[in-house]
Amino acid sequence: MKKGIFMIALVLLASASFSTADAKKKKEKKQPQAPVTLPVELKNGSDTLSYVAGMYMTEGLIPFVQQQGVDTAYMADFVDGFREVIGLNGDPKQKARVMGMQIAEQLRNGMLPRMKQEFTDTPDTIVNDLLFRAFTDALLKDSTVMTQQKAVEAFRAKQAWNKQEKEERLYGPNRDAGRKFLAENKGKEDVIVTESGLQYKVLVKGEGDVPQRTDKVLVNYEGRLVDGTVFDASAKHGDQPASFRADQVIKGWTEALTMMPVGSKWQLYIPYELAYGERNMGDIKPFSALIFDVELVGIDKPKADTPDAESKKVAPQKQVVKKPVARKKARRRR
Is the whole-model pTM more than 0.90? Predict the structure, then answer.
């Protein structure tokens, strides 16, 4: 009985030894061999120039690599990839593979997040795996599901629908509030409505010149939303009037400025179509109607040169140097 137990123990011990040996061999096989790095020999000026140039070209590279999301703990792997690409020597197959890897990084880290952001707050979202599969199907001309042309048309239609639905849900009330305000405001006393839909009221009537579209104007102003919120004013930017060309502002301003005599102060009521339209300008949300108090202080016209200025210039007179006159010695009278 004892002999049987002893033999079982030997078998178990031997098995353990073989298992340990096998594990050790497997572990040794799995360990990657360190690449052989030959010593550097700088035999002449060209060798030295080449070596210092290579190091010079890495200046600032590591911070850039970190900005791309690469952990510098894996710089050895970065160098392996670098050496692999450098060693391609124009191999078209490997060049295509490397390009595919680069495009994959751009898609995953750039294009995809932007597309997902576009479809935020919409009924549909982007599924990563299906997007990647469709991307490769198109490149391989696999039309089993659908053709690329059909997919492009479907995406653009979906993109337009989602944009419209999102804008309506988020900014529709803002647009409606502006339209309601303007509809009520145009019936008020002294409010003038132009053909474009611009509304204005003359607070102070000026008697000066009226700016042309390309004139540089000087104005004091305050801008408000229809709920009374002030979003900007010239006083916030210093004690001097704002200065800009009359045609380099929103359409409602350009129209008003080219009707206002200098010295005027008007209150403008501008529909969103003549303001910032569908754009999101921070405090000014898409489809916002705007109210402005605008005072036209002056027109900053460049001083024109006088046509006959050149003819009136007086040529410098030539200086005449008088020679000293020698005085004759007076004769003594005897």
Answer: no
